[in-house]
Amino acid sequence: MKMVRFKLDPAVQPLPAGRVNVSKLKDTSEADLEAQQRLDDAASAHDAAAFAQRVRKRLGLTQLEFSRRIDVSLDTIRNWEQGKRSPTGAARALLRVLDKAPEASLEALR
User: Fold this and answer.
1) Whole-structure pTM value
2) CA gap 21, 24 in Å, rounded
3) What total of structural domains would you count in the chain?
């Protein structure tokens, strides 16, 4: 997951401590919120796709070999890596374990 850090410059847009810019908040429409949500979802899917592909490549496996080793369909692996779907629940946990302890994980999956 990508993390972004930034600093607010009070000289550029001063806000009293603990307050929000009410006029900006009122000017934000539902369409603006939905557009931002779509951007956030796209970024999240891209991060998940890159992670799934990185784990597979670190193991030195093709998509077919990887799908067989973790008992997941080839189409699912392709969808993860293309960002069409994101691994959830147990699949995401398995990818994390494969990332942190690849040898032990693959041995346990035999």
Assistant:
1) 0.62
2) 5
3) 1
